[in-house]
Amino acid sequence: MPLLVTSATGANGNGYGALLAFDSDGRPLGAFSTDSRIADPRGLAVDRKAGLLFLNSGSDRVLALDRDGRVVRDSGPIPGLNPGGGNFGPDGRYYVGLRGARSIMAFPAGLRGDAERILPPAIVPFPRGFAFGRDARLFLASGIGPNGEGDDAIVAFGSNGGTRALPLVADPDLSPLDLAIAPNGNIIVSSEHPFGAPDAVASVREYDSADGHLVRVFSAGALAEFRKPRGLRFGSDGILYCVAQDEVVAFDFATARCLGPVVRFPRLYGQALISFRKRRRRRKSVIPAWNRC
After folding, report:
1. Coil/strand/helix, residue 12
2. Nearest-5° angle of CA 65, CA 276, CA 3?
3. How far apart are CA 155 and CA 167, in angstroms?
4. What burial letters (b/e) apply to 13-32, b meaning 16+ CB within 10 Å?
5. What is the DSSP string of 18-46?
6. pLDDT in tens, 42-76
7. Mean pLDDT per segment of 10 residues, for the chain of length 293 residues?
8. 290: helix, coil or strand?
9. Helix, coil or strand: residue 236
10. Assuming Cys at both sites, which of 104, 138, 226, 230 could form a disulfide with 157, CB separation 3.0 to 4.6 Å?
11. pTM value > 0.85
């Protein structure tokens, strides 16, 4: 499965500040796109219907790329946007986590027209990933920010558009970095606890989406270094992938068994990852001049 990974730079990590591509064997293919509007890239999501990759750029804008890596939609710079993760919602809009405002904003899929902030500012101390459940509830991870502020929890918002945060998960061993919804409807969270500590324990944790109780803990054990886990994605094969410092680690979701790194790349400092196949260019057949009709 080819993978695209956003590699952080600056305060988010000493990475490459680029959208990097890797083939199904984990070999690096270079930058998926070299467009200058991609700076310190963060969240990724695919609009399957349009066949476009949406990317949150540290240049305070949202971009949509085609399978050739060309930017075909651009929100334009939005002062103070400071986007984090991104996901498509049940209404077809593209939702973006706002790091500075500590809220979530919804964009039309065309990235034209007004974006709408769907949650009040500072709804949580520091947003660390969000996703929509099967019942259209919005689950938001609340973690620790760069300055040490935060509360290490997961909250839920009702499907009726309410903006009251309902505490769902309170796990003393959780410090969330990203959140995804599993095929069984449960909540999956990457965690580094205590956040930023030299001896922090990295894990992937599964919670029941109904009552928030801890279901399972996924550990890499001795199969991977698994430091600074961030973005989570499920592959079409049911494998759970988590990007971390210098690697992408795979887990068999059915058994919670770690399958080891599928990508090893120094200074990766991955933020988000996704499968998005680049367009295959057809080879032009060369017909000898003497054989042409």
Report:
1. helix
2. 120
3. 4
4. bebbbbbbbbeeeeeeeebb
5. EEEEE-TTS-EEEES---TT--S---EEE
6. 999 999 999 999 999 999 999 999 999 999 999 99
7. 88 84 95 96 96 97 97 97 96 96 97 93 95 96 88 92 88 97 97 95 97 97 96 93 97 97 96 85 42 34
8. helix
9. coil
10. 138
11. yes
Listed as own residue / partner, the contacts of 69-75 with beta carbons closer than 8 Å and 24 or more positions apart are 69/31, 69/32, 69/33, 69/34, 69/35, 69/278, 70/33, 70/35, 71/33, 71/35, 71/37, 73/110, 73/111, 73/112, 74/37, 74/111, 75/107, 75/111, 75/115
Length of the chain: 293
Residue 60 Ramachandran class (φ > 0 left, ψ -120 to 50 alpha, else beta): left
**What is the rounded CA–CA span in Å between residue 82 and residue 95?**
13
Encoded tokens for 254: 């059915």
Residues 234-276: tens digit of each pLDDT: 998 889 999 999 999 999 999 999 999 999 999 999 999 999 9
| Nearest residue to 141 (alpha-carbon basis) of 207, 56, 83 | 207
- Write the pLDDT tens digit of every residue in 34-45: 999 999 999 999
